[in-house]
Amino acid sequence: MGEVMTAQGRALPAEDTADLREIGFRSLDFSELALRVEDELGDELNFDAPGLRRIATVGDVLDFIEQLQSA
Amino acid sequence: MSEAPSVVPPASVVLVSGGSRGLGLAIVTDLLAAGLKVAAFARTVTPELTALGEKFPDHLHYGSVDVNDAAAGQAFVKAVESTLGPIDALVNNAAIGQDSLHVHTSADHLAEIIRTNLTSPLILTRFVLRRMLAKGLKGRIVNITSICAQRGYPGLVAYSATKGGMDAATRSLARELGGRILANAVAPGFFASEMSAVLGQTQLDQIVRRTPTGHLTEPEDVLPVVRMLLLENTNLNGQVLVVDGAASI
User: Fold this and answer.
1) What is the mean pLDDT of chain B?
2) CATH class entry, domain B13-243
3) From CA B129, how far away is CA B87, in angstroms rounded?
4) Percent of residues, chain B, with pLDDT higher than 90
5) H-only helix segments in chain A
6) Confidence (pTM)
7) Positions of E strands within B93-153
8) What is the CATH number of the domain that holds A39?
9) How far apart are the C-alpha atoms of B102 and B157, rounded to whole Å?
10) Which residues of A touch B (CB under 8 A)?
């Protein structure tokens, strides 16, 4: 997540509670993150939109990615 | 999650499907003349495309790929990335026509038209988008559709359905991609060649008579519109631009 934000000239906040809207982390940034994780896993991470809509904080993003990886 | 405003830079490496003849070849030629790097594939590589490759060896990557062969298409994309650089624009042009009343079109042929004109372009788009997003790129998509998506013509039921599907997909892509990738469609009227061969002369004459500009659409009419959507900063997104001389109005 930090890599995605750094590539856009922004920094990842240290707090898991940081609001994604406030730090400018958009839905497509999440997609970019998921695709980077896919590259590492060598497998596709496909998911439905409703799960994505529930994501509001940095912690939510990390939890969601973790869930996708373990699914 | 909120979407921030962004400016999408002009395209630099454009992938054109169905780029060996007709409008596709004209688009490839036009973009090369504009200085862009272009990748083009088609089921059959024509002498015209080969000649372009010899003229622009450093700017054109081309090959024989059936748009319905997803694996071959994806391999082509990766090869383009290694020769020309990351693809930041896609022109979905490959399509097959139709010349049969719906009741006389076999189920297999219906499926083939839908696969070639709708399913396969969506799969190619998905793959190219994934490559763009993974690289953090912004980009542009131009879908070549047809006036058939908006007006009814006999003998083109499945073809029209696929083009309408691509128009609809264009709008949803524009929403989904949040301004990071601009998605638009260009809907030409009937060309005097190729696709128009599926219409009878009487039907073509009727279309010409009803066209305020007095002529059928030519590829040269469409090229500046495609080029604009790929290069200019216009804030056009999710739109279907009809190029038919007002024949359909």
Assistant:
1) 93
2) alpha beta
3) 9
4) 82
5) 2-7, 20-23, 27-41, 49-53, 58-70
6) 0.90
7) 139-144
8) 1.10.1200.10
9) 6
10) 4, 7-8, 20-21, 24-32, 35-36, 38-39, 52, 55-56
